[in-house]
Amino acid sequence: MGNVLAFCEFGDGALKASALSNLTFARAAAAAHGGEVIALLVGAGAAAAGPAAARYAGKVVTVEHGDLAAYLAETYAPVVARLAGDHGATVVTATATAVGKDLLPRVAALLDAGMASDISRLDGATQFTRPILAGNAYAQIEVTTPVICVTVRQSEFPQAEELGAAGEVVAADAGAVDALGARIDRVESQKSDRPELTSAKVVVSGGRGMQSGDNFKVLEELADLLGAAMGASRAATDAGMVPADWQVGQTGKIVAPNLYIAVAISGAIQHLAGMKGSKTIVAINKDPEAPIFQVADYGVVTTWEKAIPELVEEIKKLKASR
Amino acid sequence: MKILVPIKRVPDPELKVKIKDGAIDLSGASWVVNTFDEYAVETALRLRENAESGESHGEVVVVTIGPEDAAQQLRSALAMGADRAIRVDGEDRALDARVVAAALARVIEAEKPDLVVMGKQAVDGDANQVGQMLAGRLGWPQATFAATVELAADKGSLTVGREVDTGVEYKVVNLPAVLTVDLRVVAPTSVKNNITPASHSYGTGEGGPRYASLKGIMAAKKKPMEQKSLSDLGVDAAPAIKELGVFLPPARAAGQKVADIPTLVQKLADEAKAL
Ligand SMILES: Cc1cc2nc3c(=O)[nH]c(=O)nc-3n(C[C@H](O)[C@H](O)[C@H](O)COP(=O)(O)OP(=O)(O)OC[C@H]3O[C@@H](n4cnc5c(N)ncnc54)[C@H](O)[C@@H]3O)c2cc1C
Ligand SMILES: Nc1ncnc2c1ncn2[C@@H]1O[C@H](COP(=O)(O)O)[C@@H](O)[C@H]1O
Q: ipTM exceeding 0.95?
């Protein structure tokens, strides 16, 4: 018997899509452990987002405190670890986002828990499947500690549906907060109206063959026509053509949209690791030998200069005909 | 300044994965330093040197927990320019992040470095755990997934550019701290130490870790390498993670090349129902 404490990221008064994937896992884990799901919201706006979260979990715990306004592993990990104890959690879980990956191993250290990272499947109360070797293999593992920490791969767990009745929301104390001198100096980000890369249904990605950031504009036109998120290979992000947070792959974001369009990307294993799970993959590349064609459902051997404007026109025609 | 760099040996990530008896077949594997750990060694060297005069402003100690053969990967790091190595004896398969973090914590209590620089992730197990666990155990601040690092002039803190989901976050941590590094930390101007002139560029293009020179390789043979056991360190070596089996992902069905864009759009609409 044990409960599942699910650390949930939120924004603008609602849970993020990544948190809803975490809750899908949390429900299955709670069933396996004979306990309940407790969604944990920490940070500025946690109390306000509580009722929205309660549509997805029987119990929601919110922690709000001036010193916990923005995420820091140093201050959040002790809060999560303490609440895991207070609420009888045998599983502590988060999504494998930048925050989840930074936070959960630190929580595991405080709980002396074993941890399963970036899991793709729950196989039993203490058994999990997870990708290893950049997704070139999967391992089935068992975690033998009394408390288990888990991060879940968002693309492998669908978003949780709302429950029939809303759960209860309780506020918890922050306790003593010590950042150990760590602080965030600033965050540089570019606002975008496009869907989030990790939950988008369509992704358009460009690689080194795009040659410049300016040339990405044609891909962005295609993306906007499809309601798609923009992605990129490491070569394109490294060269500064596009922001680093567009990178798809082993060390970028893992995506599994309905449709992934790879343009001027060769298909290195580290890139494939981030998009192989997509339902339909399209590759546009001028090199017929490019490895991307081995995973693509549909490949066109041509240049982007020629292909993309034509693709935009054809899709417009298709839309007009419907 | 004393910097400790934990490194792990991994099977060459460029080679094809084979499975035998429900586990990754490591017979005949060729072992290399984990990619991100090579970047960590490079970062540590950049943090402690004056790249233009060549003088050293501190010590870099590399540590691995691994079998006897892992001494080779320690030698590779010494050949790049690290000063001394420690090997804690352990079998690759019997180690998990919790055990490794416990062992590293003991080494750190003894060595008292100002900074620990390590890879964000071992590219075999892809756990991405040890750095954060270690920082948690030590009660030290952590700066993970670093793309840029700047050491303050007073050497008391680091400002670390971290690639997060929504952009780049600049986090300041006081030393001692644990730093884990990501790909772009080896770009030509990613590491600043207020010793090397700020205008200095480590190579061009994507940059990368330095190669060992012939002189470096010769020198590495004479650099000290200490040996310890997990029981010397008082670490309980019982892993929390048991591997039950390994399997290959299902292969994707063979795709097709289509002749032109109108055909592509028609197939995406009618066949794949993706438009
Ligand atoms: C530890 C590690 C982690 C990594 N993690 C990642 C990761 O997360 N994500 C990632 O993407 N990479 C990652 N990489 C890098 C990866 O190995 C490749 O170097 C990278 O993916 C290559 O990017 P690319 O396909 O854009 O460039 P290239 O390999 O240079 O390919 C460019 C392609 O564009 C085509 N092309 C050129 N001009 C045109 C044109 N006019 N029209 C059409 N096609 C054209 C070429 O035929 C070629 O196939 C990682 C590497 C390491 C070592
Ligand atoms: N056996 C080991 N010996 C020394 N350092 C290790 C070992 N295993 C992991 N590490 C360090 O921990 C980092 C993260 O590894 P992991 O959490 O296993 O993905 C690696 O990049 C190394 O710096």
A: yes
Over the stretch A218-257, which tens digit does the pLDDT of each residue have? 999 999 999 999 999 999 999 999 999 999 998 899 999 9
Could you give the residue range(s) of every CATH 3.40.50.1220 domain in chain A? 197-320
**Does the distance separating the beta carbons of B129 and A117 come in below 8 Å?**
yes
Which residue of B143, B171, B255 is in closest CB contact with A296?
B255
CATH class of residue range B2-270: alpha beta
Report residue A275 CA to chain centroid gap: 13
Residue to substitute from A222, A280, A281, A317, interface B, most B β-carbons within 10 A: A280
What are the extents of the domains in chain B?
Answer: 2-270
- In chain A, residues under CATH classification 3.40.50.620 are 3-171
Which of B183, B257, B261 for mutating ligand 1's site (highest number of atoms within 8 Å of CB)? B183
Report the alpha-carbon distance of residue B172 to residue B149 in Å, rounded. 10
* 8 A C-beta contact, residue B125 and residue B243: no
The model's pLDDT over B141-156, given as tens digits with 9 standing for 90+, comes to 999 999 999 999 999 9
Name which CATH class applies to A3-171.
alpha beta
- CATH class belonging to A197-320: alpha beta
Which two structure tokens, joined as six digits, stand for B31?
């072992």
